[in-house]
Amino acid sequence: MARLQTFARDLELATAGIAPENVARELAEFAKAELADAIARGEGSPLYDRYVNGVLGAPESAVVPPGPILYDFIWWQEIVTFALQYLVERSPVRSGRYKRSWFVMVDGRPAPDPASIPLNAEVVITNDQPYSRKIDVGHMKMSVPPLIVEDARQAVMRLFGNMLTARRMLIELPGGYVLKGRFRKGISSRARKGLRKDTQAGQPMTYPALVLAMRT
Questions:
Q1: What's phi and psi for 64, nearest 5 deg?
Q2: Which helix (H) or strand (E) segment is 24 a member of?
Q3: Does residue 177 contact residue 90 with C-beta atoms inside 8 Å?
Q4: How far is CA 110 from CA 43, 79, 104, 166, in A?
Q5: Regions in the chain scoring below 50 on pLDDT
Q6: Around 147, how many Cα atoms within 13 Å sit in the side-chain half-sphere?
Q7: Domain boundaries, the chain
Q8: Cβ-contact 122, 106 below 8 angstroms
Q9: How far is CA 14 from CA 22, 44, 71, in A?
Q10: pLDDT at 10 (0 to 100)
Q11: What pLDDT does 14 receive?
């Protein structure tokens, strides 16, 4: 962060004493060199949005001094890959179906390629198995403890909490499971003790989901 805060001052120093007609070229070259250096150090992502004088996607060569040239790094690939791996490793094994059923959505649609997720998207990671809520809240006996999604949320926040928000939510899915309304007492202290309004027969099931959004 300190490096980013000094970037504007570094640009001023880099162009000091340069002929006015050459400042734009030197400014563009300096910005590209700093970008490459930040990515090499791991402080910047190879995926980013570039703004030149406020124009998204303009090349560095189009800069009008004093700029600015700004790079918004997009970390979704690293974040989503980490979250998915955590959820899979935290899942019960048995048949492996639940383990394989975690998926990513953006704007309500599956997003299988994290590298294509826009910077300001809301990202949802969930599991569409009809027993996913029972597993997550501990309503059925499993080989792993409950609260899988909450544990993943905390793990994501520990690593990436400075750049995003993470929430555990219960969401409906298009074409999702419709509840039968038959109550069986759960084994966990967090499991429901009776049928709530949202667990009555005919109601669409809500699925535990990890909901991520970049801080603005």
A1: -110, 115
A2: helix 20-41
A3: no
A4: 29, 16, 6, 19
A5: 1-5
A6: 10
A7: 2-73, 76-214
A8: yes
A9: 12, 21, 18
A10: 64
A11: 63
The alpha carbon of residue 97 and the mean position of all alpha carbons in its chain are separated, in whole angstroms, by: 24
Count the residues in the chain.
216
**Which class for 80: exposed (0-12), middle (13-18), buried (19 or more C-beta within 10 A)?**
buried
* Whether this model's pTM surpasses 0.85: no
pLDDT value for 176: 73
What does the pLDDT read at residue 205? 84
The one-letter code for the residue type at 63 is V
**Contact yes or no for 176/87 (Cβ under 8 A):** no
**Nearest-angstrom CA–CA distance, 19 and 15:** 9
Fill in the amino acid letter for 188.
Answer: S
Nearest alpha carbon to residue 106 among 80, 132, 88, 82: 80
Residue 19: the pLDDT is 73
Long-range pairs for 57-61 at CB < 8 Å and ≥24 separation? 59/28, 60/27, 60/28, 60/29, 60/31, 60/32, 61/24, 61/25, 61/28
